[in-house]
Amino acid sequence: MNMLREQVRADLLAFSRRPETLFFTVFLPVIFLVLFEAIFGGQLVTLSDGTKVEQSTLQVPAFMTMGIISASFVALAITVVNRRETGTFKRVRGTPAPAWILIAGQVVTSLVIAFLMVLVMLVLGRLAYGVHVDAAHLPWLIGGVMLGAAAFSCLGMMLAAITPSTEAAPPLANVVVLPLYFISGVFVPVDSLPTWLGNIASVLPVAPLVTVLTWPYVATTDTPWRSLGLVVVWGVIGLIIASWRFRWTPRRG
Amino acid sequence: MTPAISVTGLVKRYGDRNVVDGLDLEVHAGEVLAFLGRNGAGKTTTTEILEGYRERDGGEVLVLGQDPATAGADWRAKLGIVLQESRPLGALTVRETLRLYAAYFPHPRGVDEVIALVGLEEQAAQRAGRLSGGQQRRLDVGVALIGNPELVFLDEPTTGFDPDARRQFWDVISGLRDLGTTVFLTTHYMDEAQVLADRVAVMRDGKVAALGTPAELQAMRGDVEIRFVLPAGLALDALPTLSKPPLLTGGEVRIETTAPTPDLAKLCSWAEGRGLELEGLTVERPTLEDVFLAIAGDHAEAAS
Fold this sequence. Notes:
Oligomer: heterodimer
Mean pLDDT of chain A: 91
Largest sheet of chain A: 2 strands, antiparallel
Strand content of chain B: 25-35%
Low-confidence stretches of chain A: none
Strand content of chain A: under 5%
Distance between the termini of chain B: 34 Å
């Protein structure tokens, strides 16, 4: 336990001292939320069951999703590739530390950052935009954030496993997530997308997580168990591919 | 005393080429062994097999009494490893880095003790990324020492150092010997081996081609070289008969001899008898570098 605590402490310290990851991971989703609220917040959106809600209500969980993915998928993949290519992982494999401690350090770090961001947006949404979560729905929101962060951590490990070099990691991670943000209801409401695009997005991992986190805010439909299940399935797929392709030593040489 | 490392008939194949081809080596507990060889001689491959990073294709290997291929965490707790290419995490300070690695080991040394051992007291609060190359490498060694190891592997630790940084690094390694730590030092610098090593092993064609103290290795090539400028107006056949035929290059006479005393005596009495001065007379033993060049072969093989 002492070892895990020291690992998480070191990983969080290292994370917090890299200005570029700090900006892209933590600040950018919050800045996006503030900008999108200022621009589109007042517009009315019609949900699939006919209810009308303000765009501001949907944007809070949408950018929470982006925050979770930034921390657990993008930042995790970039860090893991970097640690592998610089020989840090190889070096730790030469100590008595068990291999899982390195993965656990990264995943716990991502979870902590994801939770902090969700907390910031939860408070910001409540205070600045009057977006309210029913106390009865809070456990679902917390569970959704945890499972979402865990699933995207597994997908982040998968991406790291198939990324060849440190230089390739940031562009690859962004090429994967940016289009998904557009078609999954993060940047653009799903109802303004062509049906076929919405259908594709609905089976990929981002849209289901948006649905899961939106439900506590607008509980007009049934509990989205199916979406939660999809998120978990994607996590398992990520985990399987990650453990099949993962390596501790640099790709070169 | 049981040896720290004992290797018999080690074989490692890449494709159909034996990179390590029947290597035998014993490293005594408490000694500093320098492991020399040209690039591509199989040094790093051998080292990584001893460290447990690579699997072997044949032979017996015991490191601290255990087979690296199957040894577990209790065995790794007794090792300190400095890899050829690794940099500490740039965002952590020296102290934070050592504190993290201390948590990996069951009986670590104190962080401050290690900082003093590698001479980074003034840099303790600096981020690793802002240290000079030599200081980063010393932090690497600190990380290898934090677990209080019995055996330390250093793979080409001073490559790319300026002379000052190398001397500081050598002091750290000498300090390790005084602590009774066994050191397996891979290097291609002869002066490093000469200063630090109790014994030197030279690897060539996947085997240990020579093994001994630096003095023993030097003695293996017993030739002493006598040089002087051929006095004006004389031909080579004017010289007295010596144990080896003299060679003439650019006006300079060179004699490689195993009997320097009688040869010198003949030369000197011959010159004195004719009232000649032997300009530029030198008598030199081969350096460890010369010995290494002779043993390790003339050209590099394929890279490892």
